[in-house]
Amino acid sequence: MKINGKDYxxxxxxxxxxxxxRNNIKxxxxxxxxxxxxxxxxFICIVKDKDRxxxxxxxxxxxxxxxxxxxxxxxxxxxxxxLELLLAExxxxxxxxxxxxxPAGIDVxxxxxxxxxxxxxxxxxxxxxxxxFVSVVGRVCPAFxxxxxxxxxxxxxxxxxxxxxxxxDTVYKKYDDKLFKHELTLKKDKNGESIAIIGAGPAGLTAxxxxxxxxxxxxxxxxxxELGGMLKFCIPSYRLPRDILNTEINSIIRLGINVxxxxxxxxxxIDKLKKEYSKVIVATGAWKESGLWLxxxxxxxxxxxxxxxYNVEKKKFNLEGKSGIVIGxxxxxxxxxxxxxxxxxxxxxxxxxxTIKEMPALEHEILDAKTEGIKIVELVSPVEIxxxxxxxxxxxEKMKVLDEIDNSGRAKVKGLGVFEEYNSDVFIYATGQxxxxxxxxxxxxxCGDVLNGASTVIEAVxxxxxxxxxxxxxxxxxxxxxxxxxxxxxxEENEIIKKEKIDFLKLNNLKDNFEELELLYKKESAIxxxxxxxxxxxxxxxxxxxxxxxxxxxxxxxxxxxxxxKYYIDSLKNMSHDSSKCIKCGICxxxxxxxxxxxxxxxxGFNSKVSAxxxxxxxxxxxxxxxxxxxxxxAFSENLNQSTWDMKDFYVEECxxxxxxxxLKIYKDKNGEKILRVRSFDTPICGFGRWGTVYGFxxxxxxxxxxxxxxxxxxxxxxxxxxxxxxxxxxxxxxxKNKDLKLFYIKSLKDLEKVKKYKNPIFIFDxxxxxxxxxxxxxxxxxxxxxxxxx
Amino acid sequence: xxxxxxxxxxxxxxxxxxxxLDLINTFDKDFIKIxxxxxxxxxxxxxxxxxxxxxxxxxxxxxxxxxFVMNLFKKGILANEIKDKVYFKGSYNEFINExxxxxxxxxxxxxxxxxxxxxxxxxxxxxxxxxxKCLTGDISKxxxxxxxxxxxxxxxxxxxxxxxxxWEMLKSKNFDKKxxxxxxxxxxxxxxxxxSLMEGDPHSVLEGLLIGxxxxxxxxxxxxxxxxxPLALKTIRKAIIDLKDRFKLNVDISIFEGAGAFxxxxxxxxxNSIEGKRGMPKIRPPYPIDSGIFGNPTCINNVETLSIxxxxxxxxxxxxxxxxxxxxxxxxxxxxxxxxxxxxxxVEFGKTLRDxxxxxxxxxxxxxxxxxxxxxxxxxxxxxxxxxxxxxxSKTGAILGSGGMVVIDKNACMIDMAKFFMEFNSKESCxxxxxxxxxxKKILELLVDFSKGVASLEDLQKLEELSIAVSKLSLCGLGKxxxxxxxxxxxxxxxxxxxxxxxxxxxxVCKELLKYKILSSCVKCKACMKKCPVNAISSDFIIDxxxxxxxxxxxxVCKFSSVSKE
Lengths: 791, 566
What we know:
- The complex is a heterodimer.
- By secondary structure, chain A is of the alpha/beta class.
- A 5-stranded mixed sheet of chain A has the order 2-1-5-3-4, covered by helices on one side.
- In chain A, strand 1 and strand 2 (6-7) form a beta hairpin.
- By secondary structure, chain B is α/β, with parallel strands linked by helices.
- The longest helix of chain B is centred in the C-terminal third of the chain and has 19 residues, at 434-452.
- The radius of gyration of chain B is 26 Å and the shape is globular.
């Protein structure tokens, strides 16, 4: 037959796909498994014949009359469409929503699990992979992850931010030295390139951290005499204690970053740096403040918020008075108001042109401000300053929120023509920030607020990573992400578990008290809270054929995702079945029909579903896990305690569970320490070996070769099994392959009589309970032992 | 026609549903003959009276009418009280020409006239003559096959494959076991010709099947019948027992009850079902004729095909005289939808669809017709002049299929029609292949968007592209033809799709696009207000559109036509 214009020989009974596979011509398929007859389900394997048009290659018999092509624009178009249809019923998240909603893409799920396992250090490293600021972000992050947490559908969000803070603070307190030593080992050898970073705020420090680990020579230039930028000068210390901040910054700098303080960089200097360094990164933030446009500059007691916070931090201020007014609704406005209280002001108001609902500031910050006694006046906008040199009062116009949305995505407001005057000793305005850089500079890399305008710390981190990912490979993030309807995630047994609340410091007098208010989780509380995590996201990304083909054919996961069927996850002790991920390829049904036939396809049309009649636990399922190995989408998967998104490639090792020594594919975590997953290699394996290996059952101290026991089916003539043969897919497989092999299930000592008849019997028994003496007896005389404790 | 002074009561499923069983008990058993449906379902419960040479066809009978009917046999005259129930009166030939005007009843030659539960009745009408010859060996297999070949008969199940070829192929197979299967898994909404045949003339089907077994050398005969046809099942079961008994037959005829899956009418799915597996199609080749039930050669024929075969064999060289080009003979249509005379209609190939529709409804009221069941196509009025012929119909995008014809009147919305058929196709997909399982569902969802007025021009393109993909890349015939209703409505009624994009449904069928309004001609009688189930009508006679559930009660109760649909 002809494939892509070349002639190929056909072996009798082959399909087009067989011929192509044999000749290394790649045709994608999801539902074909060479062990079984085709099911012709997925239709991704379509090829085009000159006469017959598009045909599925898996089930079309090869014949000399065929003249096919395996790739063309038309074929790709239909494969893409086909994948999009499959993705429409594949109601599953590739990554957990907490990870995808995080601008920096932190693997939240894993570090939460680390907390649960009492491994804060591991959790810290997980966070650092995507974000160097653990304790800082654990305090000041708006926590996009919490808004998207699937737990919201059951009760309320997991306290992700507080757990992050718990990890950060615990590690700095207990394992700081260990961290330093460990991170030094992560540092790659110097690559000879040197990079200058201007600005030591969150973006600049993030770039510095990842670049130093990658082997670059990094020098950071900062105009202040301290590092930290906005973190230090604009976030008050009751929100971000300075000792924590300094420890965290130090944990980055100590990796070998050169620091140049008090270095104001102008254009001229940048040109110089460009010559000295191979790359220059500019991360100077957004320090310029929008004004009120009311001529406020000439009044001494009207101060822009950043300037106010900066000067308070530097202790340059000596503001006096009793009343203060802050104009604005962002975090800086709230911060300024709360700082005013701490400077001794009694009557502090925040005036905002929209309503509290529309305030961009963090919700809990607004709440705290209110609790501390700050009044918030909604729907007023400043129009006129009254007084000379010293502002006595500001006139505000009453506003009304309209249904329309403005360019920034917020509701438009309109003046009502009604005015009110507000008197105050001090006025602070926090009405927006602009990037510190006025004009474009050629040949430098911009990142952080200077590029994007004022935003959050985590967005600055993300921006820095994105900027350097152009030349740092392992920061690239695969964007393809299939999504899941929120509510369909739920397991039937999900119960409502209350969020672990955190204590707050109670202060009677705020004056001059900049102590942190939010207290730490106690360890037990942290573990409890972490246990609320639902382990969202997929564990089979690396094996997911649907995903890899979808990326290859550029399918849009949401092209047809309009309605989905809601299924509960069917969980057993070691594994789960999530019908929402299933694409009905039918391979699992075929695999299982050779073992226990627990599975079948039920219902019709879009409601078709692979099912074990009702629940797996009530079926004949023996948890051998062979379905997991063959599932193209991870609908069947292991119950894992760690996300496998950064899993190492597998290696092959013999199973220690019994004398059969089946070959196992073993996947370890990125550090090569923990076995995450075990899959079958060339033969089926039993659940005993699979889960025993995953959970690390102790190896038996027996050298089987010493006993000269056959551990290989070739050449043996009978199997004597002490394990229930019905529960062992491997034995079934060998019997099927070699019909002459006699099989005996040893239920009592009598059954062993037959051993003598056979030359090379193979004995299968549980290696964790085996009696050495017993082995010896079989080996020496093939006679019966007096007793065997398993019988 | 040899009928004595008797009353024929047609009690097919349609008759029973209309109340025919109530009638039976009111008559003297000696006077009545119980038959299957005559194909005049719109008259049920009906009766044919023969008094001397005159035939009366009475419609819509009630049990109170019995004494008046009996009047005819006692006094020789029909009582005045039921004069208005006489649909027809005249000689037998007049009966055939008038009641079955426009029809050529060959396949339907027996239904309604013979007692399906009485094998002698069938034999009396000339049945089993060919079977007897087969049993004695008086007629050769080759001869029968040549009759079949000459007749030009093509499979009536839908695909139109020449029947003699199938038989010839099965005959040529040298296997220990060979199967011949009668496919009675009629599942199209609006199709009921197979059911009527099995209920009304089971022996014709059985004779056809046994002739087939004789000609092809099949060792096993199987009748695959949907379990939702209990009367047909009962009738066929009795017929098999009678047949075996009457001719001392020792052949293997078994009945398989289908579990109600539409897809099992597809031959590979049917085979899976017979084998005890889930009814899901397999890819062809291999065709069932090469590898069917448990790998044995299997020939699958439709009920209608088999039931005409005894007639063809008895009247060699007659059948092919009827027909058009490569479509010889006649075809039975089951007529449903917005018609006055729903029922069975057997017509010669080469007549137009309009010829049929004209006989059952005022053509002026017709907007379109869905031909070929849910996977057929919706043809616009001008295309109804298409000749009834396998090839001519395929050209329009519809298929002849099993012969279902749903007539659609002017009040129908074509998007709603397409939605109805896609809902059926999507539900009945077996779930095996991607394009049918997910594709049909997504087509349906897009159609729902149209019916809600939220679809865009891009959606129309998406709908068409997806439909084409589903028709190209589904595994079996069901999937491949399932988007036909959408493709043909897009082809012939594109303007309606465009109207729905603009948020209008001119037929006022799509509820989401419908608005009831009270006009200024309102006399404020409050009738609508009292009847409104959700109190959506305010005291100043304005309908609150947010509350309105579009039930249409206000429209119906208004005596002054002051409620309008928009």
